Amino acid sequence: MKLTGLSIGILHITLFATVTLINAERKQALSLLIKDAYFQKPTIIKEFLKAYDRGFLPKDALFSMGSPQTRSQIRKLFDLFYFANDFETFFKAASWARKHINQNQFAYAYTLALLHRNDCRHFSIPPLYEIFPTYFAPTDLMHQVYEAKIKDITKKKFIYNNTGYEYNYNPNVFGGPLSQDAVGHIDYKISYFTEDVGLNNMYALIMLRLPSWMCPYRYVGTNLYKRGETFYFVHQQLFAKYTLARLANGLPFTERLEWDLPIKVGYNPRVAHYNGLPLQTRPDNLVPEHFKKSHVTKAKLLENRILDVIDSASVWDTANSTLLPLDDENGLELLSRLIYGTTERPNRKYFPSYYWHAIETLGYLATTSNEHNFQGEALSTLLTSVRDPVFYQFVNRLLSIYEGYTKQRFPYTKEQM
């Protein structure tokens, strides 16, 4: 037993020394590529290396913006890309990061830089389903692709049913009428819409283009105009299209999410993360309050605060002691800033992001062990959010909050028309 303990102790020391040496070599490689003078802000490279020295997300770990530590690392990495003085410096920094940073973390920051850097705005970004196919195609299909690759098959057509609604009677096929896995929810009739590859890709890119954490005063020149109104418009239009799909297939209107009532429709995403771990399945009739009581309590509290703002038609800005009205000109933008949680919203501590808190509550109903193991459900990543029926139940609840504001608006006058 003593020898075993000694061996384990030596192994730990060896691994720690190796990791420290690898990190030092990577930092030195980055320092040789780019210097402080290559950035608009000389402290950028030092801040990034300091954060990298403390430990970034491991390359094969799950990437999730639900982790505060990961969000902080994303900002440091994005700053490294965004504040590069020229394209050559940006290219060198990106080349280094692609090799040494978690691939999802790199893809997020790199894509965001391509969207917002002035010298990259006309670049064509490949579809996200080509970069991360495991988030869009079922796991069994990806297994067939890997198997064909191993067998050196150069040409083969892969077919899968992306509706989640099987029409054959093979009991071994997921979702088949005679399968024990089939739950028979009528909501699956419109999974041709919710699991559409193009729709999921479009939603992820829209939300990626307008991140709530990006400050327009720090990142001058970024196209963040009317970010709050865009947030409302996207979700209102998406919900309208989803409702039309339901009615066209003989389904009733979408139920509104209630925190203390069961979510009747469970969901199995059938897709996996890039490292092979599957997205978690939500069983039928799950009650959010039973699993995330403290999170649900906070969500209700944030809802009440927003409703108070709507009822008073104004919000107090403690930064400059002014009362900001929810008027016809800027009211929708201001309200959306509070809901979405953009950086320029008033009273940031009193109004945390209601939207992201609710998504985190619904997307991580299972508690994980640490910051580097956020294995959630479909709502846990932008690439798969719109697949889950509960997403639209939440959007229904979200839009009902906006209705309190829209009902206070007067009709357009003849002069305005």
TrEMBL record:
<feature type="domain" description="Hemocyanin N-terminal">
    <location>
        <begin position="35"/>
        <end position="121"/>
    </location>
</feature>
<dbReference type="GO" id="GO:0005576">
    <property type="term" value="C:extracellular region"/>
</dbReference>
<dbReference type="InterPro" id="IPR013788">
    <property type="entry name" value="Hemocyanin/hexamerin"/>
</dbReference>
<dbReference type="InterPro" id="IPR036697">
    <property type="entry name" value="Hemocyanin_N_sf"/>
</dbReference>
<dbReference type="InterPro" id="IPR000896">
    <property type="entry name" value="Hemocyanin/hexamerin_mid_dom"/>
</dbReference>
<dbReference type="Pfam" id="PF03722">
    <property type="entry name" value="Hemocyanin_N"/>
</dbReference>
<dbReference type="InterPro" id="IPR005204">
    <property type="entry name" value="Hemocyanin_N"/>
</dbReference>
<dbReference type="InterPro" id="IPR008922">
    <property type="entry name" value="Di-copper_centre_dom_sf"/>
</dbReference>
<dbReference type="GO" id="GO:0045735">
    <property type="term" value="F:nutrient reservoir activity"/>
</dbReference>
<feature type="domain" description="Hemocyanin middle">
    <location>
        <begin position="127"/>
        <end position="402"/>
    </location>
</feature>
<dbReference type="Pfam" id="PF00372">
    <property type="entry name" value="Hemocyanin_M"/>
</dbReference>
<keyword id="KW-0758">Storage protein</keyword>
<protein>
    <submittedName>
        <fullName>Uncharacterized protein</fullName>
    </submittedName>
</protein>
